[in-house]
């Protein structure tokens, strides 16, 4: 009951702030020549900044900001999706969205120079950085403009309503294309660190296996890191997809993304994740740690048993027993 009451207060506060923020954000986007503006999501972000000085102990200052997702139109770009973040001036240089823009620039450039036949990530159409007055103080607004994908994410295809309509051929397609997508990302030198169905978009409206099939692209690179320079040792990411070593304080690796892919592979095949916790848990982080670090790898239904050896190796608790590269998973997928 205590957690429920606390969450209710947080939601009420966010709704109150949203009523003040969104008209300001709408006005800014209108000035930038965007129309038909529809705000789809808004949430709070928390960043911790370290303040050091010679005469005082190191201070860790928590800064609260806001991040949203907005659909709009533009005369040059057509239908677009705008991901935006509003933070105080003291923290805008280290905002997640500023980092994501840098990652996408790198991936877009690689795609252009190496002539990749399929994109890994969405193309940046534009990005904006400007100062605005919001919630009674000066704030920094960062906005990332990308193509709008009306077909939505892979999570939508795995919803309770749509999952029963998927054929085994379509499931196999999603698994192989996702594996190929992650392998291409790793081969460019990046870790994603938040692999999950909602971060994979479908670029075509039809998924009829006899006609047009969708291309997949990765989104949400806020937690992305260089393969050879991981720095986040704390368990950042989505708990349901976070590898055992991340819960134990280790930095992200290729194997962390591989584990998340294994979770997603089970979800695609069976319609459910292999590990779950009670939504009313009093200590969800402890419960997730137990699930990922101690619970055995589930057995797949008989009709998917030929994938079991891949699941076992992708979800191995110990890194050294897990697949070492996504390319090796692709080889095994070709064999089943």
UniProtKB/TrEMBL annotation:
One of its GO terms (cellular component) is cytoplasm. The keyword Transport does not apply. The keyword RNA-binding does not apply. Residues 36-336 form the Protein kinase domain. Its EC number is 2.7.11.1. It comes from the Bacteria. One of its GO terms (molecular function) is protein serine/threonine kinase activity. Keywords: Kinase, Serine/threonine-protein kinase, Transferase. It holds the Pfam family Pkinase. This is Serine/threonine protein kinase.
